Amino acid sequence: MAATKTRTSSFSRNLPAASSAQSPEIKCGPNGTFFVSSGIPDLDKTLGGGIPLGSLVMVMEDSEAPHHMLLLRNFMSQGLVHKQPLLYASPSKDPRGFLGTLPSPSSPKDDKSRSHDAEQEKGLRIAWQYKKYFDNKQDFSNEFDLRRPLDRHFYTTQHVDCISTHDLPNLAPLQERCTSFLSHFPRSDSNIVCTGRIAIQSLCAPQCENSSMEWEMLSFIRALKSTVRSANAVAIITFPSSLVSPSFCKRWQHLADCLVSVKAIPDEDKELAKLLTGYQDIVGFLNIHKVSRINTQVPAVLEATTLSIKLQKRRYLVLECLNQAPIDGSGGTSYGTSGSCSGSSSKSGSLNF
Amino acid sequence: MADSISRTIRDGALEGEHAPSLTIKDTTASPYGFDVFTHVLSQASSLILAGKSQSRGLVVVAYSRSPSFYLDFLKRSGVDVASSQKWIHILDCYTDPLGWKHQLADSGILPSNSSAGACLFQDVKDINKLQSLILELGSGLVGQGKVRFSVAIDSVTEMLRHVPLSKVAALISDLRSHDQISSIFWLLHSDIHDVRVTTSLEYLSAMVASVESLNQSSDGLSGDLGNLSLLEQNFRRGKFHVRFKRRNGRVRVMNEQFHMEESGIKFTSVTVEDGLVSQGLVPKVLFNLELSEKEKLERARVVLPFEHQGNGKHIQIYDGRRSLAPESMGEVSADTSQSNTEECSNGGGEIIYFRDSDDERPDSDEDPDDDLDI
Known about the structure:
The structure holds two protein chains of two kinds.
Chain A: H1 17-20, E1 27-28, E2 34-36, H2 41-46, E3 51-52, E4 56-61, H3 67-81, E5 86-90, H4 96-99, E6 103-105, H5 117-123, H6 128-140, E7 144-149, H7 152-156, E8 160-164, H8 172-182, E9 196-200, H9 214-229, E10 233-240, H10 246-255, E11 258-264, H11 270-275, E12 282-290, E13 306-312, E14 316-321
Parallel strand pairs in A: 4-10, 4-11, 5-8, 5-9, 9-10
Antiparallel strand pairs in A: 1-2, 2-3, 6-7, 11-12, 12-13, 13-14
Helix pairs in contact in A: 8-9, 9-10
Chain B: H1 2-11, E1 21-26, H2 33-50, E2 55-62, H3 67-76, H4 84-87, E3 88-92, H5 100-106, E4 119-120, H6 127-142, E5 148-153, H7 156-162, H8 165-176, E6 181-189, H9 195-203, E7 207-213, H10 228-235, E8 237-245, E9 251-261, E10 264-269, H11 277-281, H12 293-301, H13 326-345
Helix pairs in contact in B: 1-2
């Protein structure tokens, strides 16, 4: 991967060569940032390579649909597969039970529909020096099979910490746990030894006593954001946006480095069926409001900010651009074959032969 | 649809999932939430008795009506209450919720009267006690094993008078994730509470049924007083709007109308297309690729700049470079005015055509448009 590191300017930091040839879970990004995968390859591509280390991702839930759980599950599984320590907080009384529902990476032989490359390769022999890019791409981000649970050894043998926010009278214990977790991943100029992931589910769930303490939650998020920024870690927080008062909802949105929201769609809606192709397979929408921009002032212009969430064969999570009439010149066809290549989105140098 | 609600409650909870929960909400504009609640209650009871539903028992937490009311109601609806001890338990939070009568009886002021059959609960502020009592009563009905029971909460509005929202939400979410609960439903008067309360309870429910009035006036008082009888008639009717959260993450929206009769509430289906939902979800399209009818007609009428129009006539197209000699001026202007008026009468569409090169004379041999003459 060292050879494909894109130098967008001559002022980019001269990283030690060793750091770039390291574990596949981290990818070098522009401006001296490193990416970890969100667990969903389509989302990684849309966000420009992955989630930059040190960023706080916030997901606005829709109270009518559990799509944020899909994002959380893939995120957590990806971390466990890459042996990254994980801290998980949830409003249920037994958060450990949730680990049993995490999906397992799909094995390539099951993955017939996504890897039609395999059939194409029969006629086309990939030259040997390009093979390593395909292999590396596989390792950075996996396809997860939502129907197969993750092997138990992934979360019993390594550092997985679970907290329940249900009975916490205030958020101080949670903040302490996060800070102590993040102290294991200090940022320094030497090689990145390991990265951590924090997943907080439904921060403002109504069954928690602390859900009415809005100022406290705000200061918790602020503290978490600053601690994560100075550590080699990524944090994801989901919260039901309709349950937070509007002014606080805005404040929380501003605190996020990367902000996405999920939305439910009505069932058997003829209007939507006419507007969108593939309506039967779509289970919801994902809107990307903000993309993490660390170490740069250049804004990210995304090709499409609304993606449709589909479950292929009810197993694989797929995010696609909406297939409808052109909107602002952004692609109306699915991502892989989009004709309008606005150069800013292909930061990681997707390989189009 | 009310039937779908009953079916979902009948089907109950799957292993490892939360029990389905229903919020019934109404407002003062259309205060028939309690009738919907009792309707669902009677349907659930008859299904339990017939053995068709997953749940085998029912615990009713009664805040706003006495237990005897419920037993009478069920009897009137044709549900067999003789064997009520075996399948229904009513937790009486109505008679003496804060224990005042008990205290007065203890100090001898009031004569004490023993509670009739139903379990009297006198400490509504203690939500943990309430929860354990519900679970105790339920497992008393169905036993300790895998059999499940349903819970009906008369009015969460009443519950919220005594207990803060987070505790009520905790109670509901605990009940939902309990192994022995098959389904749970409750009534809420949404205009009494903050928006936050309503949205929190909707967050916790798999189905939200709202009872709305037919006329959408925000203030029920301002109406056409001259049409009082119509108002009164409309008051007995309303819209019943249900949102189901399906397992795949989609939301099914259903609309019905209901009207109140002596015997209770009756639902009728309504066929109203609702195209407004999709507009908020899908991003706005800047291009309009469709033509309206008017636009199609206009398009058909525009005269294209070919000199041979295929109808034998030869029309002069003003190509902007002819010198206007006086005698031909009249001609040209007549022609242009003719073609102009023709075009104006055709809706005002006009195509201004300038030839590429001045050297090219019209109708020359190399005119490429010649072959278009049909």
